Amino acid sequence: MKRALVVAVLITATGWAVADSRDAVLEVFRAQLELEKRLLVADGSDLERSQEQLRSATDRLVRLGDDLIRAQREGEDASSIDARSLDLRRAEAEVGDLITQSQQTRATMAARRDLVEQLAAEVKRLEEGGVSGQDELSGRWLVSIEPGGQKGAFEIRLDGTILTGVYQLDGGWKGSLRGTLIGGNVKLERIDAQLGFVATYVGRVVTRGAEKRLEGTWEATNLAAGLPVSGTWVGRREQKAP
Length: 242
Known about the structure:
Lipocalin, eight-stranded antiparallel barrel, 8 strands
């Protein structure tokens, strides 16, 4: 998954360099779509290997468990029983690790499939010369970032699929925002005026009662000691005075 994130960041950066051309933007999305498809195939191969390893490790775990039961019934000495128990614990740990690895791969594949669908829809829209629906993003959003309850404002502008903007947060932090809107999913990179690229925000516009909000998660890219590395965020559109 780290490999995919690095590639996505590089492709996003390329997209920024050519954002003034619809054809160039379309080529960026096509390239990312093909890349994600190849990575999905590679993930599938990884999952197959994990499944084979899990099958082998599970068979060994069952065999060691049966051997321990047999040894206890036949009255083997304590040192032998202890050695068999240690082997069994190691086999249990191996199976647990392989299950976790398999779960992570499946989660990665599910997220990648969603991204492939979103990219395919965006490519189709651009190929057909369509325009995005109603712009629900452009404007000033009052944001709250957890953990810590940091507050501030994101001012965002949407141009096709490209997002640009500026921000200001409690503590005097300010800088620029850049990102994309793909398949209804928002991705924003926060570029701090002092620290540079510090965090990535992802989210969607959701409806809560009569209110539309931006909700999602964030991850730090500048891992300063003692500071949170991930969390959630919510944006509420600022209501202009009548």
